[in-house]
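Researcher: I'd like a structural prediction for the single chain below. Treat it as a standalone chain; there are no partners to consider.
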Amino acid sequence: MVSKKNSILTHEEINHKIKRIAYQIYESNVNEEEVVLAGIDSNGYILAKKLKTALSKISTIKPILCKVIIDKKNPLNKISTSIPAKDYTNKSVILIDDVLNSGTTLVYGVKHFLDVPLKQFKTAVLVNRNHKKYPVKADFKGISLSTSLHEHIDVVLEGNNFEAFLK
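Model: Treating it as a single chain, here is the predicted structure.
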């Protein structure tokens, strides 16, 4: 049985959202020389790479990519990053994921970065679902959506046909 899916964002809309989020990141970091784009492993990291490309086209800010490895099923397990803590200490950091669902992944990701002093900390997501378990918000978001707890959002950011859809 094939599950029914409803398209939320098309390829063109996702590219537009990425560009808009890049401008928002630039505006909130206009006086920074560097900004750390910390993407949560898999889709969050892919989104961070796309934001890095978009940010590089519109500003002189040097984006530093960082992959955040977190066990989404067991977020209390050790969280690691692809760059050492000294590389993001006293910098502006944006934690990036594809979907803000319950807030669990983002809140534990935020907790990891609070172990070092930061200049500024923001969050960015492509899709913000409006029911959260934790008081975490997306500072930069592509789209906000009110969904039921039983619905699921999938985001495809690989290949040449990006899509976000509701199942």
